[in-house]
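Tokens in:
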């Protein structure tokens, strides 16, 4: 059985990983349970490096966000939920899923660590949220998982950000930069395969990750 010292060391190591990924002091406090004063002393001694500004609030943001933001939020959330369903603790799943998200998407990343934390909170109904506001659902057309309002049943491809990305990819240079393909694509079906391959790559990374490194 882990001792109190073991648990404290584990919390500090998790806090360090969160800080390295750009988390705010408040986010790290909620994830690890460590006191803000201790976190400030350990990780935020330089005022210039301390994250500032309003903390993300995802339920309203997600439903009004543009297509690229919703797609990247869905990539993170699908990996996070997969990890949680396989028994990962929430903090470990958050860190591992965010790393997986960053390995899939192109820099600069549209989803910050604090945004990912907020998405996870409102998907699981933990930390910031008393109950879930989001569900991760599967598109019946392309089989991709995407984020939707809690209780949503996906009956068509109309709400799937990845189906919409496929439709717009050929004429939208922003999408082409954000989801680069390995060879020219001649039709939407080819783009769909490429995009699903990106998602599968993220899931394989999640499967092979035994927790924060």
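Residues out:
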């Amino acid at each position: 059985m882990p001792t109190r010292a073991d648990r404290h060391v584990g919390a500090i190591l998790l806090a360090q990983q969160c800080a390295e990924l750009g988390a705010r002091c408040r986010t790290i406090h909620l994830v690890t349970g460590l006191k803000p004063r201790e976190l400030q002393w350990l990780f935020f001694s330089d005022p210039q490096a301390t994250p500032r500004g309003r903390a993300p609030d995802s339920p309203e943001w997600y439903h009004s966000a543009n297509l690229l933001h919703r797609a990247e939020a869905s990539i993170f959330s699908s990996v996070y939920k997969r990890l949680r369903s396989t028994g990962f603790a929430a903090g470990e799943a958050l860190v591992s899923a965010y790393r997986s998200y960053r390995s899939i998407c192109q820099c600069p990343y549209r989803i910050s660590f604090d945004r990912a934390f907020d998405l996870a909170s409102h998907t699981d109904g933990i930390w910031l949220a008393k109950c879930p506001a989001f569900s991760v659902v599967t598109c019946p057309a392309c089989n991709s998982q995407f984020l939707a309002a809690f209780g949503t049943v996906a009956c068509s491809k109309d709400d799937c950000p990845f189906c919409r990305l496929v439709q717009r990819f050929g004429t939208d240079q922003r999408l082409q930069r954000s989801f680069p393909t390995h060879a020219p694509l001649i039709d939407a079906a080819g783009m769909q395969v490429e995009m699903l391959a990106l998602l599968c790559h993220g899931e394989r990374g999640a499967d092979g990750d035994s927790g924060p490194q």
